Amino acid sequence: MIGWLTAGWNRVFAVLGKVSMYRMVFLALLGLTVVAFGVSFFGLVAPSPLELLATLAVLAVACGIVDVVAHRIIGQSLRLESSVITAFILLFVLRPTLEPVALVGVALAGAVA
Fold first, then answer.
1. pTM (2 d.p.)
2. Residue 71 burial (CB < 10 Å; 0-12/13-18/19+)?
């Protein structure tokens, strides 16, 4: 029994070892976002799918622009996965909205993060 569990555990680590941590976190957050859109579509949570989409788009653009500018300033290679991960995390932290003033606040939060 222990040998079977150890072999299974080693297989899991072999698969996970082939995927970068950025990619794994990105895929996990992408999955959670798909679930959030699904439950939002069926009205099981307060934000509408359009609010989620607008907030995610604003966050992705704000985080992406700051990431590109910062990487140009410091002269390092661009890694957009980190800004997309930040946008996904903030989507679950901030209140999704369609109000323009609130979206400016969301963009500011994304830029600061």
1. 0.84
2. middle
